[in-house]
Amino acid sequence: MTGEPPRYPGPFDCLPWQAGAQDRGRGDGWEKRCVRTLIALILALLAIPAAAQERAPLVLAAASLQESMNAAADAWASAGHQRPTISFAASSALARQAIAGAPADLFVSADEEWMDALAAKGLLAQGTRADLVGNRLVVVEPASGRTRLTVRTLGATLARGAVAMADPAAVPAGKYGQAALEKLGAWQAIAPKMVRVENVRAALALVERGAAPFGIVYATDAAASTKVRVAGMFPASSHPPIRYPVARLAASRNPAAEGFRRFLLSARGHAIFARFGFTRP
Fold it and tell me: How confident is the model over 36-87, as pLDDT tens digits?
């Protein structure tokens, strides 16, 4: 037997205050093994994927962005990042959550007004607000329908039955809808029969189920459903421009959030949203 084989040190054995007197006296062989151990440790740490080191950003996104934002999150994850966690709801509800201190990283609103509300309270990270996409406002009916609405017939036709619409008192889709109907002189006839719901997807669902003969939603909502058809489109001039601003929240401390925000605004991000019918802002 030749005696005890060489012992390879652990990373902490190589620290001067950890190594014992016997190890420090072993000479160059021990020091070389220390160097090799530390190099191996550094290489192992560098090999850890970026996705394992970052925390997934939390995104508060308008309900009408469900398909497109999920697709964008999937594309971001396919590039080796943690897939963002996305909370969908009416912009009004999400803004109130952010104001109440929800631990979110990004906010994507379906209108400027709710983003303005957060900006007024100093809740947006400076220089991160930007317009992401645009949209159009339409009237939908069940897929079996054959209605063809025009500016002249819209008021009288919609006044015949219930019209599902997001609550115009707070929800962007509802506010755009009321503005358009007022511009076209149809609001007074339709308002008494309006079915007000919490967000635009809830309005879409009522029409899908046949619970309402008509609904006012975004063009992208109509495109996302096989159970409805577009009966008519509101003129763009009948309501304020539909813009979706995005911003990072000032309280966010997640570096990945800024990366995802920039990805959404990139050419690749815009291509994803365009695939779902969104327009340039």
Answer: 655 655 555 554 454 445 789 999 999 999 999 999 999 999 999 999 999 9
Mean pLDDT of 90-94: 97
The H or E element spanning position 220 is helix 219-223
Secondary element (H or E) of residue 33: helix 28-46
Query: Is the Cβ–Cβ distance between 164 and 215 less than 8 Å?
Result: yes
Give whole-number Cα distances, 254 to 45, 86, 217, in Å: 21, 15, 34
* Torsional sign, CA 195, 174, 231, 219: negative
Band of residue 27 on the pLDDT scale cut at 50, 70, 90: low
Q: Residues 6 or more apart from 33 whose CB is under 8 A from it? A: 6, 8, 9
Q: Contact at 8 Å (CB) between 213 and 134?
A: no
Q: Which two tokens stand for residue 236?
A: 């763009």
> In which element (H, E) is residue 231 found?
strand 228-233
From the list 268, 122, 149, 123, the residue with the least C-alpha distance to 214 is: 149
How many Å separate Cα 81 from the centre of its chain? 16
Question: Alpha helix (H) ranges present in 79-199?
Answer: 91-99, 112-120, 154-158, 172-183, 187-190
Distances in whole angstroms, Cα of residue 214 to Cα of each of 158, 160, 166, 219: 7, 10, 13, 14
